[in-house]
Amino acid sequence: MRLGLVIDLDTCVGCHACAVACKQWNTSGTTGPLTDESPYGAAPSGVWFNRVRHYEVGDYPHTKTVNMPLSCMHCDDAACVTVCPTGASYKRGEDGIVLVDQDKCMGCSLCAWACPYGARELDPRDGVMKKCTLCIDRIYDDALAPEDRQPACVITCPAHARHFGDFDDPDSTVSRLSRERGGRKLMPELGYEPTNTYLPPRSAPAVPTADVRRGSLMSSVKDWVNKAIAR
Amino acid sequence: MHPALSVIFFTVLSGAGYGLFSLVTLLHLTGLYPVPGHGELMTQLGLALALITFGLFSSTLHLHNPKNAWRAVMRVRTSWLSREAVCALSFYPFALIYLWQILRAGVEVSALTVVVGGMALFLALLTVFTTGMIYASLKTIRQWNTALTPANYLLLGLALGATALAAVHAGFGGRSEGLVLLALGLLLLAGMMKGLYYLWIREVTGPSLNTATGFTQARVRLLDQGHTAGTFLTREFGFDPGARRIFRVRLGVFGFGFLLPLLLMGMVLAGGSSLWLALALVSALAGIGLERWLFFAEARHGVMLYHGLQRT
What we know:
The structure holds 2 protein chains of 2 kinds. By secondary structure, chain A is α+β, with helices and mostly antiparallel strands. Chain A has one domain: Alpha-Beta Plaits (2-Layer Sandwich), CATH 3.30.70. Helices cover 21% and strands 19% of the residues of chain A. In chain A, strands 10-1-11 form a 3-stranded mixed β-sheet. A two-stranded antiparallel sheet of chain A has the order 2-3. A two-stranded antiparallel sheet of chain A has the order 4-5. The longest helix of chain A has 12 residues, at 217-228. The termini of chain A are far apart. Chain B is an all-alpha fold. In chain B, helix 3 packs antiparallel against helix 4 (111-136). Strand 4 (51-57) of chain A pairs antiparallel with strand 1 (220-224) of chain B.
C-alpha cells in the first residue's frame, strides 16, 4: 500500500479549512499537542502540519490564482528519514506513511533541513519534530464509520478538492484522478518521489473582452481622480 | 539559513582542534616535528582535545531534546550526522591512549603510539569530513550540495590547526620556519578553495518556484503565504542577509581569515617576532568564524521558494 493525497488545484478555494481541521484533530491526536506560541499576541505562531499558500500563475490578463495546500508528501525516497541520526523518523513499510517517533527524536532539525516541502515543524515546547501523520489515528480506527476513516483535511474540505487513497491500487480514486487529470508531483527533480499528487487547474475558455464598452468621459475623470488622490 | 551560534562555534573550534590534532600527530609520528619537547607536545594535543571537546559540547546546545542525543549513533548506515557522531566518539579512546602513552613513555615513537596515533589521526580527519558531508548531502540547499563543502571543512580545519600549531610552538620559544610555512601553505590553499566555493555558488541551479508549484509554463508569484507572523520554517530558513552584507562579510572573511594571517606569517618568516603568530591565530579564528556564519547565512533553503523566492 502507498497511501497519500490527491489535491485538486482546480477546485481548491483556499479556505484553509483543511489546515484548521488538521490542527484541531491532531493537536489532541497521537503526535499532539501542536503547540502555539502567543496565540493571542501580536505575532501568533505555532505548529501546523498543513499550510495553504496562494500564488498567481501567468501574466496579466491571463492570470490565475492558485491555492496550494502543502503538507507531508510521504515521499517514496524520503530524505528526512535518510538523514535522521536517531532513527526517530521512519517510513512504514505497510502503507508508506512517514512518521516521527517522538520518544526517540533529539530535536536536531536536520530532517526539516532535508525536506524541500516544509512539511516538518519543530515544536519548541516539546523539543521534538512534528509532522503530518496522514491521520493515522483516524484511518485505521474501526470505531469510526467507514466513510469517516479518512484524514481530517479530506473529510472537511468543502470543495472536495482533497482525496485520500492507495496509489498502488490502479483502480483507486487517487490513482484514477492523477491518471486522468495529469497529476503532478512537486519538485520532481530532487528525486524524492513524493506520493501526494496535485491536479492542475482545468483550462477554461478565456472570457471575451472585445465587447467591453469604453467608459464614459465622467467615469474616466472619476478613475483619474481616484488614481491621483493619495489614500 | 539561520546561522546558529552553537553550530558556528562547534564547526570552527572542533574543526581547528581536529586539524591541530591530526597535524601534530602526523609530524610526531613521522619524526618531522622540530625538537618535540614533552611539555610542548602535551600542550599541543591537550589544546586540540580541549577545542574538540568544547566544540562538541557546543554542538549539543542546538539540540532541542538533548536527552536523546545518545541515540544519534543509531543510523550509521544512512545518516551523515550519525556517522559524524560515531567518528567523533570513537576518536576519543585512541586519542586518550595516544596522549597517555606520550605522558608515560615520553616523545619516543613506539609501535603502540604509531597504531593509536594513526587511528586517532584517521578518525580526526574522518570526523571533519563527515561534518562537511552532513551539509553537502542536503539536496534542498544548493549552496551546500557540492563536493567543495567537505573540501572546505577539511582545508579550513587543517589551516586553523596549522596556525595554532605554529603559534603554540612559538609560545614555547621554538622558531621553526617549516611550521610557519606549513600554516602559510595550508591557509593559502584553504583561501583559494574558499574563493572557488564563492565562485561556484554564483551559478544558480536546482528547483525554482515553478518546479516547486508544478506550474512550469508560466510565471508564478506568491500572493500570500497563508500566515501573518513567522513560523518555524521562516525562522529556521528565512534568514537572508542581503547581497551587500554578504559582500562585506566576504571582505572580512578574506581579510581576517586569510590575508592578515598570511601577512603576519610572512613577517615572521622575514625575521619578525614569533609573537605575531598569536595574532595570526586570533585573526584566522575570527575570519573563519565569519566564514562559517556566512556559510549558513547565504545558504538558501528550497522551502523558501514556497515563501516567494523565485530561485534559491
